[in-house]
Amino acid sequence: MNSFESELGAKFPKSYKNYKNYIIKFGATHNPSLLDSIVESGSELPDLNEFAQVANVVKFNEMYWSGGMPNTVYTFATDCLGNAFCFEISSELDEVLVYDTEFDELTSLELTFDELINEYLQIVDV
Hints:
Oligomer: single chain
Largest sheet: 5 strands, antiparallel
Helix content: 25-40%
CATH topology: SMI1/KNR4-like
Mean pLDDT: 83
Radius of gyration: 14 Å
Structural class: alpha+beta
Number of strands: 5
CATH superfamily: SMI1/KNR4-like
Low-confidence stretches: none
Number of domains: 1
CATH class: Alpha Beta
Strand order of the largest sheet: 1-2-3-4-5
CATH architecture: 3-Layer(aba) Sandwich
Shape: globular
Distance between the termini: 28 Å
């Protein structure tokens, strides 16, 4: 993880590092059924469809930056439409931002990474 932080020029939030350690051990998370649960619950959250694989996180971000995503953030996951879930590069805070690829807009979900994961767990009733 430290080499990826160096390459991106970012410091991953502790909560994200803890989750990434789980992914390194057990494999990447792909969540296509989360969209159904979000729609059924009436939640306004975007669906977190897939986490970036640890080995590809630098190339993944380079792709989004070349497509117009501000280089002040880095992405760690996407929704089903290809929008990027992000953290700010200059911060160790784990506030989650979403980069909308269609409208070229960056907005805050006003949730930390742990809060976002907990919201999803409540939606799927885990």
